[in-house]
Amino acid sequence: MVDVNSAVDQDQVIIPSDRRITIDDLENHRGLDTGVWIAIAGNVYDISTFLSEHPGGDAILLDAAGTDVTEDFFDLHSDEAEKLLPAYHIGRLSPSTEPSNMTPHKPQEADAPFLQRDSWKKVVLYGKQRLSHDTRLFTLKWEHDSQEFGLPVGKHILLRLKSPISGEQIVRAYTPIATRCESGEVDLVVKIYHDKDARKSGKMTTTIDLAPMGSLVELKGPIGNFEYSGQGNCTISGRDCYTKRFIMISAGSGITPMIQILRAIAAHDSDSTECLLLSGNRCEEDILCKDQLDTLVRENTPLFRVVYTLSNPCDGWTGYRGRLGQVLLETEVGSPTPESAEIVLLCGPPAMEATVTELLSKKGWKDRDIVRF
User: Fold this and answer.
1) 76 lies in which domain range?
2) Is residue 260, in this structure, part of any structural domain at all?
3) According to Swiss-Prot or TrEMBL, what is its membrane topology (predicted)?
4) Which of 118, 155, 230, 357, CA to CA, is 20 to 30 A from 18?
5) Among the residues of the chain, which ranges form H helices?
6) Is 308 annotated to bind ligand?
């Protein structure tokens, strides 16, 4: 929201506000009822009206509300994102409260979770396993074996690693598939995009793939707009929800949040939440963690069911063929019913998510019942 004290000249150039804002004012604007403010490089922005437009979802912005996000903003965003800032500028932090003079964070208490939303925590690259020609299982280890990791089911982490070539700090979001607090370990499944693929994630994936054992990596979190608390109960962007069945639709490495949720449900005999997973891949060798998925289904039938579809299958493939599209969705998902209490979980490339969302909308599914990771 643009401050009323700001002005726009004849060429539609936004003139920044000279309003002075204290750190107390900033910290008092953490939600939709008060306004969502953030500070970047000594400037304050009201991003309340930008929440629904943020490509990474509104949850990460709400988590950061009322704080200085300078480091994270420049780590995570391009020059294009920086060009959007003036439209939301409402003033500058008072000189006595700018980040360099703010009271430092209190040391983390011994019994606090390892993960912290407002600070990067160092972990060691402890293990690397080749799952396929372009997929690795990375094991990261934190210092205190008995310390709780602090990642709710359905949430993600930010991973930061410095490129040994350019010195650039690279940041990406990932969903761990498993944590072992008794040994202080967390597992990430990462698809490696090499430079020739020209993928956005290539910088991070090639850097971590080449990193030697014992390298330091940094984590921050949790982030995300979805959290599963068990027995069909979850929150979506702060809204409490209940579901009898999750319809999980994933492509490629988008399977990782689904595995996390499936494991959480399977770990509790009293949780009777049903799960239908539609997994799209290019070929059978590209299906990540297929053995784990098939075991989960076998041990949790009839609650769990997995349907695979391949866009480039071998001659002997007997399952669905083609991308995640209209035929598969009509056959396996269909239209929602008032009594169904179902929630769709969607994770994959942006084009796939947009296509599936459009197809589901035509079948009567509402945006509020579709979670895009």
Assistant:
1) 7-101
2) yes
3) Single-pass membrane protein
4) 118
5) 23-27, 59-64, 70-76, 79-84, 202-210, 256-266, 290-299, 326-332, 350-362
6) no
Residues 6+ apart with CB under 8 A from 320: 307, 308, 309, 310, 328
Whole-angstrom distance, CA of residue 106 vs CA of residue 85: 30
Active site residues: 156, 174-175, 347
Instruction: Report the percent of the chain where pLDDT is more than 70.
Output: 87
- The encoded tokens of residue 23 equal 């750190």
- Is 191 known to sit in a ligand binding site? yes
Question: If you average pLDDT over every residue of the chain, what do you get?
Answer: 84
Q: Are 205 and 162 in contact (CB under 8 A)?
A: no
- Edge to edge, the sheet with strand 226-230 lists 226-230, 233-236, 239-242
- pLDDT-derived band at 59, boundaries 50, 70, 90: confident
CATH number assigned to the domain comprising residue 155: 2.40.30.10
pTM of the model: 0.75
Residue 114 lies in a domain: no
Q: How many domains does the chain have?
A: 3
Q: Which among 285, 348, 297, 347 has a CA at the least distance from the CA of 130?
A: 285
| Domain stop point among 223, 242, 269 | 223
Which DSSP state fits 329? H
Instruction: Determine if residue 363 is labeled as part of a ligand binding site.
Output: no
Same domain, 266 and 326: yes
Q: 338: which residues sit within 8 A by CB, 6+ positions away?
A: none
Paired tokens of 359: 């197809």
**Looking at residue 306, which CATH number applies to its domain?**
3.40.50.80
For residue 58, how many other CB atoms are within 10 A of its CB? 18
Token couple for 138: 């990375």
Q: Are residues 96 and 166 in the same domain?
A: no
Q: Would the annotation count 307 as a binding residue?
A: no
CB within 8 Å of 204: residues ≥ 6 apart = 159, 161, 170, 171, 172
Q: Is 189 annotated as a binding residue?
A: yes
The per-residue pLDDT for range 71-80, each reduced to its tens digit, is 777 766 666 7
Angle between helices 290-299 and 256-266 (to 10 degrees): 30
* pLDDT more than 90, % of the chain: 48
DSSP per-residue string spanning 121-145: EEEEEEEEEEEETTEEEEEEE-S-T
Give the residue from 154, 156, 121 showing the smallest Cα distance to 140: 121
